[in-house]
Amino acid sequence: MVSVYRNKPGDYGSVKAVDGSRNIHLDHYSCATTSAVRNAWWQVDLQAIYLIREVVITNRGDTYAGFLLHDVVIQALKGTQHLTCGEIGHNPLADGETKHIPCRPGTVGSVIKVTRKASDSTGIVLCEVEVYGTQGYSLAHGKPTHMSSTFGSYVSSKAVDGDKNSLITENSCTQTLKQKNNWWQVDLQAVYVIREVVITNRGDRNAGERLHDIVIEALKKTEVSICEVIVYALKNGETRRIPCQPRTVGNVIKIRQNATKAEYFTLCEVEVYGTQVYNVALKKPATQGNVHYEAYASKAVDGKASTLWNAESCTYSDVVHPWWIVDLEAVYLIIDVVITNREGYRRKLD
Ligand SMILES: [Ca+2]
Ligand SMILES: [Ca+2]
């Protein structure tokens, strides 16, 4: 947290908000307490990424000091991304109150940060902060979706709202118009090796029998890899785990129907699990045939995007049959090798 009251971390340190005790008395030393500063903050590192469902905050209860806990924002941090879980508004918590703050759908992060936005400079006291969520969240959760057509309010995003309710009247399922060749897709916003897709089918009025002859694909630019083909209908309300074929790679997951007659197409939830694809060569040891003009082999894995020679980010080797090698220092499944050529140079990289 930003600072510790009286500089006594043993009595008021940040860990006191996660010591498992909701004790509300400051002199029992179970409340994290900052000094009197403006915009005081406290945070906890969960050490893994979670889909955060709820944050529970216990307020100080002695000496009527509880009135200080108002104008607080609770955020989930993931890298540079800050998502707001929820807020405590201008009305303070009651003395000693334990407040349940449900997070907005799609609140994902590895750090939970509690910040006081009040104009006064009385700092912040948190007697306990509890965080509830699930690890291994779906990559599709809250991501942008599209589908071939929309019936009423059953929009494409309902399949990634985190709710597996299979009753269409509960407003958490998608539905297209009654057409042939229906499709639905989600943009994962990064390239992944897809391990598994989990589909929850509609469960009411036996409408689940419409979900048959579907193809689950991963798309990456113009490349298509098929995760799986399902011929027979899923059961009513069934949640089915569908393991993907090896090397199913993409940033978009598309589910399309190859039905011979026009039908409504409904998905109550789609979850996607996989591993992100990233540059495994970055800053790894590199060698080459010889080195000219101090253009070392490492320049090709320095992470700099410039293509200009003067930017000193290109390699140069001029032996006969030149070569360049990078040692990845581990075994990887290689999806792509991307080479950037020097700009404005007469001799081509051929
Ligand atoms: Ca505590
Ligand atoms: Ca849903």
TrEMBL record:
The keyword Lyase does not apply. Residues 1-140, 141-281 form the Fucolectin tachylectin-4 pentraxin-1 domain. InterPro entries: BG_Antigen-Binding_Lectin, FTP1, Galactose-bd-like_sf. Keywords: Calcium, Disulfide bond, Lectin, Metal-binding. One of its GO terms (molecular function) is metal ion binding. It comes from the Eukaryota. GO terms for biological process: regulation of cellular defense response; regulation of complement activation, lectin pathway. Acts as a defensive agent. Recognizes blood group fucosylated oligosaccharides including A, B, H and Lewis B-type antigens. Does not recognize Lewis A antigen and has low affinity for monovalent haptens. Homotrimer. Belongs to the fucolectin family. This is Fucolectin tachylectin-4 pentraxin-1 domain-containing protein. It comes from Ridgeia piscesae.
